[in-house]
Amino acid sequence: MKILIRDRVAVTLGPKLSETVKGKLSLGARILQAGGVERVFRQAFSADKGERLVKALQCYLYTTGGPIAGMLFVSTRKVAFRSDRPITVSSPRGDTARVTYKVAVPLRRIREVRRSESADRPEEKYIRVATVDGFEFWFMGFVSYQRSWRCMEQAVSEPQ
Predict the structure, then answer these.
(1) Which has the least CB within 10 A, 92, 116, 137, 156?
(2) What's the CATH number where 99 sits?
């Protein structure tokens, strides 16, 4: 699957459909082993006692290094992303480590959630999350873009 990013650079997300399907099945197995999506969320992001997971969405987080496949968790208190697989990072000394890519943004710190689509390919849709301190996160490749959009919009618009 290829996704065209804003500046017309094609990014390959998977070499073949069969590889993508195999990866999704593997992810499902890992979630089952961990005890379900709710438990994965609570372990990865230290959810508060009163916090409730509203929705877990498979998608990609676009980074300067390219898209990262993972799960976007929308809870009553935060929006959080966790990569499906570890990524390799390097230290200034040249050491490398494999870490899970995680992002968590409290809902009260989100300034806006906006829909976006590629100018050249309108079928490629994104959800942009902007924080009050100037950070932006771009999510794409949702299984159901409309449902994902409604979920994000509702979570951010509800009072904290």
Answers:
(1) 92
(2) 2.30.29.30
